[in-house]
Design goal:
It comes from Acanthoscelides obtectus. Pfam families: PS_Dcarbxylase. One of its GO terms (biological process) is phosphatidylethanolamine biosynthetic process. One of its GO terms (cellular component) is mitochondrial inner membrane. By secondary structure, this protein is an alpha+beta fold. The protein has a domain of 225 residues. The chain contains nine helices and 18 strands. A hairpin with a 2-residue loop joins β3 and β4. The radius of gyration is 35 Å and the shape is globular. The termini are far apart.
Length: 402
């Protein structure tokens, strides 16, 4: 009996200890599971947070772009404000254009040339049948393809007018220059003085301080200034030619921005042509003052002028705002003569003096070809006769000059 009581007492003493150990073990296991669960939840929280924070900027940018497009669509008639122009000019478009120029100069393997050039031609509507040669494999780089020559006879030079189109492209704007601000498109202007630069020589005997008037060689016979802007799209023939018989005597190179010169930007951004890099050639023709300007643009790797070997555009080193050289009397151009080439689409701006009865033979938005009639001098006003002929449920528009 004594032995039984003794053993029972020892068991009662041990049981609480064992019970306590079991409780501790159970609590530890429960706590461990809780800790593991908490860590897992925390890990999932961190993972979701990283996903959200990682993609949020992309989403915000996408929303911002969509909102901006919607806003621009609603405000299609507005023009860029000063802060919008400043923001646009802050974009690294010159660096992008230099990079694009470097890419365009890379020699491509022959087997891949038809694929690359064929895709480009399909996207931008290149008529490769006009090129000499037509074989894609002949062009070792994109730059060579952009500056492809045309077959003989593909462009006919009009000899029955005083001026022809200097390039293939779309007519953005044309007309008289009545003030010191020129229209780049309807309602959007740029400064004539900022575009051509300070007048460093006198063209006539008058004492006028008016910049526009100071350009005229023959103001006494009633001459005035005219202008024409032609945009070369990426799919157009990229070489540009002389529109008439004239003699360039000076070249001014303005190292500016390389903003897009597409029609949509030209309608939105005032002073676009004054902001961009450009090569201005000043001279004279039979009716007086004549200027021919090749305007640089985004992704135009190089502007090359055949008779001006010293011209270097889109260079990395920051140069003076304007450099001027005298060409002398060595350059004498005839209509249709090759002048240069763009290594991508851009813009040609003509500003010239002519009699008051000079008339353009084009319309805004017209697609023109190099050598096509641009204007002529005559006493009879150019008239637009539009007749509509119903054909298969539609209308055909016909225009002619009388």
């Amino acid at each position: 009996m004594t032995i039984f009581i003794s053993r029972t007492t020892r068991m009662l003493r041990i049981y609480p200890i064992l019970h306590t150990k079991e409780l501790i073990t159970q609590k530890t296991q429960i706590f461990g599971r809780q800790t593991s669960s908490a860590k897992s939840e925390k890990s999932r929280s961190v993972e979701w947070k990283s996903i959200v924070t990682g993609f949020m900027p992309v989403g915000l940018c996408l929303v911002a772009v969509m909102q901006w497009r919607a806003f621009r669509k609603r405000q299609s008639e507005t023009i860029a404000s000063k802060w919008e122009i400043n923001c646009y000019c802050m974009l690294p478009l010159r660096t992008v254009s230099r990079a694009w120029g470097w890419i365009a100069d890379i020699q491509l393997p022959k087997f891949i040339r038809p694929v690359i050039y064929g895709l480009y031609s399909h996207t931008f509507g290149v008529n490769i049948s006009e090129a000499q040669p037509e074989d894609y494999t002949h062009y070792s780089s994109l730059s060579e393809f952009f500056a492809r020559p045309l077959k003989d006879g593909v462009r006919v030079i009009d000899q029955d007018c005083c001026m022809v189109s200097p390039c293939d492209g779309t007519v953005l704007h044309f007309g008289t220059v009545d003030t010191e601000h020129v229209e780049q498109v309807k309602g959007i202007t740029y400064s004539l003085k900022d575009f051509l630069g300070e007048q460093s020589w006198k063209q006539n005997d008058s004492n006028t301080t008016n910049y526009r008037h100071s350009l005229l060689h023959k103001p006494d016979v009633g001459n005035t200034l005219y202008q024409c802007v032609i945009y070369l799209a990426p799919g157009d023939y990229h070489r540009f030619h002389s529109p008439t018989e004239w003699k360039p005597t000076h070249r001014r190179h303005f190292a500016g921005e390389l903003l897009s010169v597409s029609p949509s930007i030209a309608k939105w951004l005032p002073g676009l042509f004054c902001l961009n890099e450009r090569a201005v050639y000043l001279g004279h023709w039979e009716h007086g003052f004549f200027s021919y300007t090749a305007v640089g643009a985004t992704n135009v790797g190089t502007v090359r002028v055949y008779f001006d070997k010293t011209l270097q555009t889109n260079i990395h080193k920051k140069s003076a705002p304007m450099k001027e050289i005298c060409l002398g009397s060595a350059v004498d151009l005839k209509r249709g003569d090759p002048i240069g080439e763009f290594r991508m689409g851009s813009t040609i701006v003509l500003i010239f003096e002519a009699p008051i009865h000079f008339n353009f033979s084009i319309f805004p938005g017209d697609k023109v070809k190099m050598g096509q009639r641009l204007g002529l001098v005559h006493h009879q006003r150019f008239q637009d006769r539009i007749s509509h002929e119903k054909s298969d449920g539609g209308y055909v528009t016909m225009r002619s000059a009388s």
